[in-house]
Prior knowledge:
Blueprint: H1 2-23, E1 32-36, H2 42-50, E2 55-58, H3 61-70, E3 76-79, H4 88-91, E4 95-101, H5 104-116, E5 121-126, H6 140-151, E6 156-162, H7 175-189, E7 196-202, H8 209-214, E8 219-222, H9 224-227
Parallel strand pairs: 1-2, 1-8, 2-3, 3-4, 4-5, 5-6, 6-7
Amino acid sequence: xxxxxxxxxxxxxxxxxxxxxxxxxxxxxxxxxxxxxxxxxxxxxxxxxxxxxxxxxxxxxxxxxxxxxxxxxxxxxxxxxxxxxxxxxxxxxxxxxxxxxxxxxxxxxxxxxxxxxxxxxxxxxxxxxxxxxxxxxxxxxxxxxxxxxxxxxxxxxxxxxxxxxxxxxxxxxxxxxxxxxxxxxxxxxxxxxxxxxxxxxxxxxxxxxxxxxxxxxxxxxxxxxxxxxxxxxxxx
Length: 236
Ligand SMILES: *Cc1c(COP(=O)(O)O)cnc(C)c1O
């Protein structure tokens, strides 16, 4: 019964996402729901897959790689967590989109490993819009400069921006954060940098994805509302 529940949850969230996207006046004609499956067992991922999900998000390289091997090959894997340079080689041929590029050093490693494998790696730049000490990501001010450095590298394409907004009980608190990320992407798009497009805006999680869509998200990353709470005590 529990297993059927996650499939139902996925369909409920998906329907909600589509309804809000339809009503929203922002540029997002199409919002993709990423089922964030970190810490969750394969049986639950398969239930959500059977309900129609093809985009899955993981925040750890090792967990993504092991689930990659055990899930159908038409799954698009999104790496949404911090990526260490020494793990890049395991992930470049498995991640459909890397959401968390925030340094030139990391981008260079992705470029190197992707080129070695004859691939082009699609990435988003993670922006720490709220300037929280505890979060990864470049500041809004550093973003364009980093993008210009990445744009000239082979084997890597910048597709847009991502942010992890502050944790809050009131999603409206994050509306200015999402609006700011959208403004930044519009600003960078207007610079017409070669090899860079700003088609993707990855923002919004279980607590605030509705507001994020209203502010222009094209990817929302939803874990808890689909899979239930995560139990970290059984990991590490
Ligand atoms: C875990 C995680 C999510 C999903 O969070 P929920 O609140 O469970 O929906 C989204 N984005 C990132 C980067 C995450 O690490």
